[in-house]
Write a structure and sequence with these properties.
alpha+beta, 8 helices, about 30% helix
């Protein structure tokens, strides 16, 4: 098995000792090439090189941003896919601050434990799992995209990271509260268009998800769309209020195990093939936790069965 190990040495929880352990473990099982990212977009370049050279496995040791870059480097978008592209399997060893995608796949959060888990899955031959992804803004997303409040939170977190501040769960909570009160008086400008439904207007913010649960809060799950899975369509969670009490009720539901979020001010559908979100004024867009910019129209599309990952199979 020919393997490329992509390491982001600047990721939050990567260490030299963990990198050495991971490389040694993979060398004992595969023909290994190790590459360290050196600039933004480098992971995508490395992944494209691995696919061009028909390598069997790409293992990413980094955070959600590095994983997203890697996937966008070697998985062709449907509009350019001729069915001939070589697609390695993907393995993930968490190395970031949140590691949302890895957690959602059932990969252990500790890098050493995740390394052992990956080796065991490769050895047993039962770690093959094919999942769907989402597409928006001409790129893949793994677990979540959204407009409005969560995009502004991601923008603020990105700004804090640039100043050397770690993206801890506590920072996510503080930032979300601050951004909520900052946006509370703004007029709703978003309209959500879902096939089979009337347009939903007066929306303040919306999540479009590819799985459930997902979370930036360590082991605390966030369930916006409990019926959404990597093997299903996309989940839509669009909120038409910024009033404090309804927001607190929704937040309680999102953080409650086995909850089915409901509200008169909530539009939710857990399995849709596509979503269009339009806004009277350009609104913030985030993809897998990265702030992308501002858009007045964004299309989201589900793409089933496009990525082979080495991860525990769902129970």
């Amino acid at each position: 098995m020919r393997t490329l190990l992509i390491v982001n040495p600047n990721a939050t929880s990567t260490t030299a000792a963990t990198r050495d352990l991971l490389a040694h473990a993979l060398e004992s099982r595969t023909q290994l090439t190790v590459a360290h990212t050196q600039h933004r977009g480098h992971a995508a370049e490395l992944a494209q090189w691995a696919a061009t050279n028909e390598m069997d496995l790409i293992v990413v040791h980094g955070g959600d941003g590095t994983v997203n870059e890697t996937i966008n480097g070697f998985v062709p978008l449907p509009q350019v896919d001729d069915g001939q592209a070589w697609r390695p399997r993907l393995g993930i060893i968490p190395g970031g601050s949140a590691n949302v995608f890895a957690r959602a796949l059932g990969i252990k959060p500790d890098p050493v434990a995740a390394t052992n888990q990956l080796i065991d899955l490769l050895k047993a031959g039962d770690g093959d799992r094919r999942i769907g992804l989402g597409i928006t803004d001409d790129r893949w997303f793994c677990f979540s995209a959204g407009v409005g409040l969560d995009a502004e939170v991601c923008a603020a977190i990105d700004s804090a990271r640039a100043k050397g501040r770690a993206a801890t769960p506590a920072r996510y909570v503080r930032t979300t509260v601050a951004q909520f009160f900052r946006a509370k008086q703004a007029q709703p400008e978003v309209t959500v268009h879902v096939p089979g439904h009337e347009p939903v207007s007066g929306v303040h913010y919306a999540f479009v998800t590819n799985t459930s649960p997902w979370t930036y809060l360590n082991a605390t799950p966030v369930c916006t769309n409990p019926g959404t899975r990597f093997e299903s369509g996309l989940g839509v969670f669009a909120v038409r209020t910024m009033a404090l009490l309804p927001t607190l009720r929704l937040a309680t539901q999102l953080l409650s195990p086995h909850s089915e979020p409901k509200s008169r001010k909530l539009f939710r559908d857990d399995d849709v093939p596509s979503v269009r979100i339009s806004s009277a004024e350009p609104i913030g867009l985030q993809i897998d936790g990265d702030f992308i910019g501002r858009r007045d129209v964004v299309d989201f599309t589900a793409a089933p069965d496009v990525l082979d990952v080495v991860a525990p199979r769902p129970v």
